[in-house]
Design a protein that fits this description.
heterodimer; A: 280 residues; mainly alpha; B: 413 residues; 3 domains; 46% helix
Chain lengths: 280, 413
């Protein structure tokens, strides 16, 4: 059997299962609500936002919605944490998401592969001997990604970091009197600054980075549908996550070989089969 | 008091009447009214000379027993009727001398471009039907006075800022108390502007001039006048400060409303705007050494931001600094004196501790303050740098990706 037969291009793999999709959807809903009810405070100078929140009552409702969404976000995080700790798939995902040195190298290689500046230099005859001796610096081939590439890992850990900072600072802003029982005003003032600017960072990261990667990127435009269907094809796996693809392929190859060995053993006689199975 | 004087003078005049030697033949009011009660009665020149008999009989003068000739004194000598066409106008000052003197010196007395007084007694009090000030029907009864003044000032006489400005009074809490609650002690026109001696607001002697307005409002708002005079604004005011705010600078003039009402100039969400009219003014800040950026730093805080969105429960300037008795933060009696801050903050934040005072509310970058007070600002600067760097990296990666795709497509074609 060839590789293409072992993992067919139209075979369907589950990239996000239902739990993960629900967690992602819940994250979208809470994030959008938090942004819609929080960002206007950062841009209090803009007339537009004052039109959105015309009166004192609307402002109070805004606060209520903001805190309700925050509680939902926390609940979602707790769910995700439990899922990560208590399910096999969650643990596997988590292990695959741990940042490694390779991710930093991948980012570096991807960038220089994309701009191709060193290949241009080599073609122009600059540093000819250097490039002849070190072809790595030509970045001819793009880096090969595993289940999660550096972009996805970055986004995952950005959400984790951002949530931790926002929840901590937000909690103390919610309970001002509690905060100021333990911290002086200048520390509380830092909470407020951090909450606002961290939100700004999250907003820009989502609007620029995530929206490009899953929407505007010509590869997936207008939208990658993984978050809805959770499915990825064998072809996409092979092109976008070659290392994961390779691992699946390897496992199947081994399974095929084992099957063949078992088939041969059964033809040769019972005792051998027993021996081989007990030895594993 | 004011209504006491005329009756006292009236009494004196009546008592003195016979002593002046009245002519033997004197027409009683009935004689005059025999002709003048005819509403169609006109003079040769076509002017009506009718007298409303009921009105006259209900007047304070008639009820005190005065007759026509007591005012129309040139009729005393007349024995043959009908009398001559032209009579001298009735002269109230014969009895009401102090009021007449006040009126002559007033803006009403002075502004009559060369043809005597612009406003005479009868314009406000009426003529034959003049009643006592405490008579419900009187034009000058406290509940009726605004209508009497507005009869001219709403349209006919555009004094100062015009009729619109005068009519703003009808929106005020003062007018509402008068009209709605029937509180005669609520301020009507005369309470602030004075009655007979009313003067232009530009006249320093006016009761509503900057020099006198504190005293004028303080006639009723006694406790507030006391608080104001103890505060920084009041102390400067007593020293003759020309830029210091007086009552009307914050509360407006005619349309004074309770602070709890959204239209009030000192409604919770508008207070910061009112204070910053002076405290954000560069010229005044230089002249008096006012601390800079009070409004900006307030607006950036949660209190200020929420207030801009119309939230009224958050602190405005006055919530912390006080309203009338605003004191310098170095004054131990000040609500923002560091040791008083827990109590001040505690008015909203139950159980506020000394921690509330350990940090700056109005932090300005140029100020020389300790590292602790500056730390939020440093964190902010770090965030701005970090966010810019991260976004720059994002954009670089996106640009590189798009460039790569463009080049690849070019090669394939």
């Amino acid at each position: 059997m060839t590789d293409r037969e072992l993992v067919r291009d139209d075979e369907v793999f589950v990239r996000m299962n239902l739990t993960e999709r629900l967690q992602h959807t819940l994250l979208i809903l809470t994030f959008v609500t938090l942004m819609a009810t929080g960002l206007p405070l950062f841009f209090f100078e803009f007339r537009l936002f004052r039109w959105l929140l015309p009166s004192g009552k609307a402002f109070a409702v805004r606060g209520l919605l903001h805190r309700a969404a925050a509680v939902m976000l926390i609940a979602n995080l707790v769910w995700h944490l439990g899922y990560t700790v208590f399910t096999r798939r969650g643990r596997d995902n988590f292990r695959a998401l741990i940042p490694r040195v390779k991710d930093f190298r991948d980012a570096f290689e991807q960038f220089f592969h994309n701009i191709g500046i060193t290949r241009l230099l080599a073609r122009l005859g600059v540093l000819k001997r250097f490039f002849a001796r070190h072809p790595y610096w030509l970045f001819r081939a793009p880096p090969l990604f595993d289940r999660y590439n550096f972009v996805e890992k970055f986004e995952y850990w950005a959400v984790a970091w951002g949530s931790a900072v926002m929840i901590a600072s937000g909690f103390f802003m919610w309970k001002v009197e509690f905060s100021l029982r333990f911290f002086p005003l200048w520390v509380h003032n830092i909470f407020i600054i951090v909450h606002g600017y961290e939100a700004m960072l999250a907003f820009l990261a989502i609007i620029i980075w995530h929206m490009y990667n899953v929407h505007l990127n010509p590869e997936v435009f207008p939208m990658s549908k993984v978050w809805l269907s959770g499915r990825i094809t064998g072809k996409e796996l092979r092109l976008l996550h070659p290392l994961e693809y390779e691992r699946i392929l390897e496992a199947r190859r081994r399974a095929v070989t084992a099957d063949r060995a078992r088939a041969e053993a059964s033809r040769a006689g019972g005792p051998l089969q027993e021996e081989s199975s007990s030895g594993v | 008091m004011r209504s006491g004087w005329p009756s006292l003078l009236l009494g004196l005049a009546l008592a003195a009447g016979p002593a002046f030697g009245r002519p033997a033949v004197q027409a009683g009011s009935e004689d005059c009214l025999a002709c003048h009660s005819d509403p169609a009665l006109t003079s040769a020149s076509g002017k009506t000379v009718a007298v409303n008999q009921a009105g006259f009989e209900a007047s304070i003068h008639a009820r005190a027993g005065m007759s026509c000739v007591d005012c129309h004194t040139d009729l005393r000598q007349v024995a043959d009727f009908p009398h001559a066409e032209r009579l001298k106008p009735a002269d109230c000052s014969a009895c009401h001398e102090p009021e007449a003197r006040e009126l002559a010196a007033s803006v009403h007395g002075q502004s009559g471009a060369g043809e005597g007084q612009a406003v005479s007694c009868r314009d406000c009090h009426g003529a034959h039907d003049v009643r006592a000030g405490d008579d419900f029907e009187s034009r000058t009864f406290s509940l009726n006075l605004p209508g009497t003044c507005l009869a001219c000032h709403a349209e006919k006489v555009q004094a100062g800022r015009g009729g619109e400005f005068v009519r703003l009074y009808e929106k005020s809490v003062h007018f509402r108390a008068l009209e709605g609650a029937g509180l005669t002690m609520s301020a009507n026109c005369g309470s602030c502007h004075g009655a007979h001696g009313v003067k232009s607001v530009r006249d320093p002697a006016s009761e509503v001039s900057r020099t006198n307005i504190i005293k004028t409002c303080g006639r009723c708002h006694v406790g507030i006048e006391r608080d104001y005079l103890e505060g920084v604004h009041g102390k400067d005011y007593l020293r003759g400060g020309k830029d210091v705010p007086v009552c009307t600078d914050c509360h407006n003039e005619h349309d004074i409303l309770p602070p709890a009402e959204a239209e009030s100039s000192v409604y919770a969400t508008k207070v910061a705007g009112v204070c910053s009219r002076c405290h954000d003014d560069m010229a005044l800040a230089r002249k008096y050494g006012l601390l800079p950026d009070r409004m900006k730093t307030y607006a950036e805080s949660y209190h200020g931001t929420a207030s801009r969105f119309g939230e009224v429960r958050v602190a405005n300037c006055g919530s912390c600094h006080g309203f009338h008795d605003i004191r310098d933060s170095s004054d131990p009696k000040s609500s923002v004196y560091p040791e008083n801050l827990p109590a001040t903050c505690g008015r909203c934040h139950a159980g506020a501790t000394q921690h509330f005072a350990e940090g700056k509310i109005h932090y300005v970058a140029q100020e020389t303050v300790g590292f602790r007070d500056r730390s939020p600002h440093i964190v902010k600067s770090v965030y701005i740098v970090v966010i810019s760097a991260i976004i720059a990296v994002f954009l670089m990666f996106i640009a590189a990706d798009l460039l790569h795709r463009a080049l690849k497509r070019g090669r394939h074609d």
